[in-house]
Amino acid sequence: MNDPAAVQQKYVAEAQKRARKEGVAQYEVLSQSDSDRLRHLVDDIWADHAALDALPSPIGPDDRPKFLIVGAGIAGLVSAVRLIEQGFSADEIRLVETAGGVGGTWYWNRYPGLHCDVESYIYMPLLEELGVMPSRKYASGVEIRSHLNAIAKKYRLDDKVLFRSHVDKLEWDDAAHLWKVDLTTGRGPRGQEMTSTTVKSDFVILTSGLLAKPQIPKLGGVGLGGFKGDIFHTSLWNYDVTGGSSEETFPDLSKLKDKRVGIIGTGATAIQAVPCLAKYAKELYVFQRTPSGVYSRGQKETDPAEWKTITSQPGWQVARMDNFAGVITKANPPGTLDMVDDEWSKQPAYAALVGDAQNAAVAPEKIPDLIAHYQSLDAENGARLRKRIADIVEDKATAEKLTPWYPAWCKRPTFSDTYLQTFNSPAVHLVDTDGKGVDSVTPEALAAGGTEYPLDVIVMSTGYRAPPLDGGDPALRAGIKVLGRNGVDMTEKFAAQMATLYGVATKGFPNLFWLGPSQAGVEANFQHAIDTQCRLNAYIIAKGHDKVGGKTTNGVVVEVESTAQEAWSMRIMQGAARFASLMVCTPSYINAEVAPGMGPQKSQEEMMNGARRAPWGGGLVTFKRELSRWREEGDLSGIAVSAA
């Protein structure tokens, strides 16, 4: 089916199948579950608690580090490194991390088959600085986690992280020019000993990830907590159940050889994990609501000779990241070489999600034309994808059920040379729920479409709390109460009206910076967007110090000016209409499970504030050009700086 009108009708019909009036309420966050069993599925099983308990704390109640970074994933580590590169000392930095080690998503996620879905040469941070060559074009989770630990060690950050700790509250002390930080730290496997501490810090940087709260569907019957067999979420893979270990890229899951395994979900995680499960399980049942678009992976070992060419010029990694972003957002000059040249390069319509220079600002009445433009761009790619599935999957009925019917920008594309092939095995069974999902759970089975499927193990590949739910509020995302000048609550402020400068800071909250997509440039390569904001934050802080005496100056206050953040917010609003391309998408985490035409009615004020929460409409490359022009002015325009 390649007729444009028929394809669009199919898109609408398939999207409506998944529509649920309860929206995101159909899920529960595991850490907030009423079930004690489910709640403990997010306990940190990777931490060496005895070793951590024996370590001296890097932060004491009387300490005042210059910088407190909340989070020690990629964003937290790169934030620290960019500060160090600006001339600050690692000794002035402390990081607070909920996990028992660094790495963020790469610490928690250790499921079999895990790899980055963007080329590792542009995804793995600081490759040029460390002189590291990834072993493969798409590095494994094991390799990425090792690399992040190496970053912490190289920059002397490994002993400056307060692990198993959560920041509960930030409160600005205007008289002392600092933040008061309330912390809770746990000891032991389940935080049996909880200690509360208040410390002080001149600057705070929030780096909480967008996909950090594992969720599961609320199901009828006995619920997932009432299942008698083994159960776990892919965000914390249980190798005691499956066999193998978290230190292996393709572990031996031999404990599953006599087991009937069910996996709920067919998103990016399942695409990588399903082939590994299928290799070992006696029977594998894959429960699907919405199929993923699965393109070829093209994995290969890194060729040292090719690597020498790739890294021949200083600044090669940033140049390669810019080139990749420019391909997707059409920001590269005609005739520019596509350096990465993989399946991402063949996704011309993905700019509908991440922005592009040509359609950075679109009048509301032009939205239908814009959507039609992107759908036209996606037509050839969609037909190619459907043909690939039909060519690989031998059973025609199964192939049809594995075929996605939505534009490419509506769900993150996935890449595998083994996932689709897995369904040619007689031991692998696709349970397509026609958009409805699993109905209920019995003590021994999952039920869908009126049929019960007896199982020994359930793997929940059901994703994370939808990022749009935090509305661009970094305090809400991190679960922190943030009180700025005069006790103003950040969450209350942003609920009333979003306003930032370049998406990283706001008036009334001095010396507080963060990372996130709202009012900032976004990209398919998350690491590129993260690094851009880390560099920006470090630059603002460093230049602020230079204006009032240098890096050793104490009591420095850096704050966004009202006129600057309002001007930037207006520019964001002018480009927000182009993201109406999501209106045609099937429900997913990207649009907070809202089906086309089923969103709640909003007032004019609500729509305007929603527009303020949008990303920069021109894509990351043009966002970086905006920042470059601003830097060239050289006076921190829009930023007020003072010192005690």
Q: How would you characterize this protein structure?
A:
The protein contains 22 helices and 24 strands. The strands form seven sheets. Strands 4-3-2-8-22 form a five-stranded parallel sheet. Strands 11-20-12-13-16 form a five-stranded parallel sheet, with helices on one face. It has a four-stranded mixed sheet with strand order 7-6-5-21. The protein is globular and about 70 Å long. It is an alpha/beta fold and 644 residues long. The protein has a domain at 4-34 and 222-297 and 368-460: FAD/NAD(P)-binding domain, CATH 3.50.50. The model has no long low-confidence stretch (mean pLDDT 95). Belongs to the FAD-binding monooxygenase family. This is Uu.00g041600.m01.CDS01. It holds the Pfam family NAD_binding_8. Its cofactor is FAD. Keywords: FAD, Flavoprotein, NADP, Oxidoreductase.
Structure described in brief:
With 644 residues, this protein is of the alpha/beta class. Helix content is 33%, strand content 16%. α4 (74-85) packs parallel to α19.
**Percentage of residues in helical conformation:** 25-40%
Structural class: alpha/beta
Strand order of the largest sheet: 4-3-2-8-22
Distance between the termini: 69 Å
> What's the total helix number?
22
| CATH fourth-tier homologous superfamily of the domain at 4-34 and 222-297 and 368-460 | FAD/NAD(P)-binding domain
Quick check: average pLDDT? Answer: 95
Radius of gyration: 24 Å
Strand residue percentage: 15-25%
Instruction: Report the CATH architecture of the domain at 4-34 and 222-297 and 368-460.
Output: 3-Layer(bba) Sandwich
CATH topology of the domain at 4-34 and 222-297 and 368-460: FAD/NAD(P)-binding domain
Number of strands: 24
Per CATH, the class of the domain at 4-34 and 222-297 and 368-460 reads Alpha Beta
Give the biggest sheet: 5 strands, parallel
Uncertain residue ranges = none
So what's the overall shape?
A: globular
GO molecular function: oxidoreductase activity
InterPro entries: FAD-binding_Monooxygenases, FAD/NAD-bd_sf
Family: Belongs to the FAD-binding monooxygenase family.
Protein name: Uu.00g041600.m01.CDS01
